[in-house]
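Progress narrative, Year 2. Work on DUF2437 domain-containing protein from Georgenia subflava advanced from sequence curation to structure prediction during this period.
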Amino acid sequence: MRIARFITGENPQYGILDEDADELVALRGDPIYGDLETTGQRVALDEVRLLSPVIPRSKVVGIGRNYADHAAEMGNEVPDEPLVFLKPNTSVIGPDDPIVLPAFSGEVHHEAELAVVISRLCKFVPAEKASDVIFGYTVANDVTARDVQRTDGQWTRAKGFDTSCPLGPYLALDLDVSDLAVRARVDGELRQDGRTSQLVHKVPELIAYVSSIFTLLPGDVILTGTPAGVGPIDVGQRVEVEVEGIGAFSNPVVRRD
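Result:
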């Protein structure tokens, strides 16, 4: 099952994707906080604007250097423990929203990732019980100001600026994420093509580790890391990210005048 957050008028709605009909079956409320009760309303996909499938109430937790080939291309070793950073919820945008390059950076990169969405308040979750706190999965682009990441010594500016966390296009429930393709394209050119089976620290381990640091809240998002092939994006380009079984979406790249 895949769920979209969408808008046709003024107020965002949630809907279950009917793949055969290319329609969304509207839900009565936010599925993270309620159930999957439908209203009976059906809306054609081509008549809606898709939004980020979740707006984290609290935080986006990122994981760095979690693919060995990406760590190597950046000249880094794979850390023994997950390398954790935070992105504010103000960094989140949805499909087709512009990625606004920050004025303080001249080298911004794309990073396609599988993202995990948390279902309930939790702390100290054992890895073997991680599935109990997962609501679903979505696709992320961990947009990064690479030059600033190198010079600042910590990653807040490099990864936390507004529009640096596109999420979409759907929330996939009950998905086996052990071996899914993770891809990024820039203007149609394939840049990243990895698989979640290459993750150094798998999803259950990440949830156990992250929840030992932070209390996780419903709607919090954990980014699981990016495969090799990251590279620059520039004004006028369109960046697409995709995870097999969830879907693909893209964003135009702009710079504020």
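The domain at 2-51 is CATH 2.30.30.370 (SH3 type barrels.). Residues 100 and 217 are 28 Å apart (CA to CA).
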